[in-house]
Amino acid sequence: MSDQPAVxxxxxxxxxxxxxxxxxxxxxxxxxxxxxELIGLKPVKQRVRDxxxxxxxxxxxKLVGLASGSPSLHMSFTGNPGTGKTTVALRMAQILHRLxxxxxxxxxxxxxxxxxxxxxGHTAPKTKEILKKAMGGVLFIDEAYYLYRPxxxxxxxxxxxxxxxxxxxxQRDDLVVILAGYADRMETFFRSNPxxxxxxxxxxxxxxxxxxxxxxxxxxxxxxxxxxLSESGRQALREYIPLRMQQPHFANARSIRNALxxxxxxxxTRLFAQRGGSLSRDELRTIEGDDIRASRVFT
Amino acid sequence: MKITQGTFxxxxxxxxxxxxxxxxxxxxxxxxxxxxxxDDPHPRNYYWEMWGNPMFDIKDAAGVFVEVAACRKAxxxxxxxxxxxxxxxxxxxxRLSFIVNRPTNEPGYRLxxxxxxxxxxxxxxxxxxxxxxxxxxxS
Lengths: 299, 139
Fold this sequence. Notes:
Chain A is α/β, with parallel strands linked by helices and 299 residues long. Chain A has helices at 18-25, 27-37, 42-63, 85-98, 112-115, 123-134, 157-170, 183-192, 194-198, 211-225, 231-246, 252-274, 281-285, 289-293; strands at residues 7-10, 13-16, 75-79, 107-110, 138-141, 176-181, 202-206, 228-229, 286-287. Chain B contains two helices and six strands; from the N terminus they run αββαββββ. The interface between A and B is medium-sized, with 14 and 11 residues.
């Protein structure tokens, strides 16, 4: 925080010092972090920047006494599995918190089970309970389309949607709702719930990752787990990724994470099989080519 | 006669913003909030009706205030209080309790003198409101 006032009188009326405002919100740090730690996702990052800019300008407008209605920030995240929807939602909560749009900046991640009850009269209290927990933060509903089951007209999901709608409309200042799911199913979901669709201002589409993006993601993941790839390991991973991408049930970054977990397993077995002798720090953290090549993808 | 029970009761009525600020303070201390209501204003009436379960795992005052507002709406002519329970070892008790809603007309208390053996007098109080049966007071 700087002591300098953000608003100073100028010869054409009051002037807002944007650099002070920016420094106060520390939003640049979060955005840089987003750029650094999340690979790819260009359109998503751009939209996050747009929203950050809007909120900052809104705050500047408020400082000089211009009307500043809090904009609706409910969002929908669509994209294939493993494209980073949950990760971005977490970041979004932080960004909105730093910009002062939500008061606490925590993320409550739920699915249908957490909102919909099992018998008549069970759904409303359950949904309200979750909404109360999410107040002041972000409510992230994963695979939101399960809330609506057109084949069963007695399904309680509709009740949960109605309560959600009401809170999304009346308590916009208290929480931000993010609905997430696979693109095609979300589309049908929104088509059958026009009220929900019209209350969501931002539809963000998460593109699939390209091969080299996945490679960089793998490296970041390994770094966080304190592992590194040997030269042969790197080569093996480079060959592994395109092969894995063609397999069924490919889930982008999540598949890569699983592959790395299995490679760690094999590395552990390999080191364990050596029995006796001592292991150096380097050996303990290096994943070799064979650890990856043992995958069934190569057969 | 405005009854004075719990914290802040000698102050003017708290506004919604002030109530939220107090709730937020309690949440920041890690206390669990609950909402209760009653139509028996006797100071020794400890057991008020619970409005829903005590609320845990809530981060923001808005979440608790939803229940305060709902209780006020359902029981506009009763006393409503917010309580904050501290589960820390050594306390394990209510740390904060304040009234957030009261009936428009509070008739106050009468003093009852009961003469016992040897002309000894016992004093007690009773609210004029409780002359009517439960549920029909303050209407």
